[in-house]
Design goal:
Length: about 210
């Protein structure tokens, strides 16, 4: 059993209601310091830390590492937020309703903003990062985004065969529907503790193919 400590980044410097996926936004120094004070007593002292490379996550990892020598970290692009293409930095209310409907109607395959990611591509990369982490069986801290955490919550609800197919690079995501995507927000700089796998036999040999090192 592996325990993940899922940390959402502090609040970025952006107005409410803006789509900011992979846009590389910074956090206010005061929010970073507040997050560090809260997380220092919540996270384990000796644990592998993996961060999204976007600065709102890596800033937090760097400050944690600076104060806690055991918090060495690495970055992994698979923990970045979803790429919304031309929708990036637009107000959600300004995005065409037809485009949003096209996305929810073909949730697995529609590429957001014309050239961004599909939800299927996004979930696949998160699953492959999870598969690589599961190989070690060691507890980890992920400093990441709300979208990545929702992708993990969706994976948690799927049969084991769906997860292994994604890790192996399958393009089949017939189970991925907008109606089933997890709802609800997660507070900035909040920690969600999560044990993996939930109730599945961890067949590590079946996970090796498809990892991105």
């Amino acid at each position: 059993m592996m325990r993940l400590y899922l940390v959402r980044h502090p609040k970025p410097l952006v107005e409410a209601g803006i789509c900011y996926g992979v846009s590389d936004l910074a956090c206010a120094a005061s929010d970073l310091q507040t997050a560090v004070l809260a997380l220092r007593d919540t996270l384990p002292k000796a644990c592998q830390v993996i961060s999204s490379p976007l600065q709102r996550c890596e800033q937090l990892a760097q400050v944690l590492y600076g104060r806690e020598p055991d918090f060495a970290y690495q970055t992994d692009a698979r923990l970045a937020e979803m790429d919304f293409g031309a929708w990036e930095m637009q107000a959600w209310d300004a995005i065409s309703r037809d485009e949003l409907t096209a996305w929810t109607d073909d949730f697995a395959n529609y590429r957001c903003g014309g050239f961004g990611e599909s939800t299927g591509q996004f979930v696949r990369r998160v699953a492959q990062r999870l598969g690589q982490s599961a190989q070690s069986g060691e507890d980890q801290v992920w400093i990441t985004h709300a979208g990545v955490i929702r992708a993990l919550q969706w994976l948690h609800m799927q049969p084991w065969a769906v997860f292994t197919a994604l890790v192996q690079g399958s393009d089949s995501l017939c189970h991925l529907r907008a109606a089933d995507w997890p709802r609800g927000g997660m507070a900035f700089a909040q920690v969600l503790t999560w044990d993996w796998p939930p109730a599945w036999p961890l067949n590590l040999l079946g996970l090796r193919r498809g990892w991105q090192e």
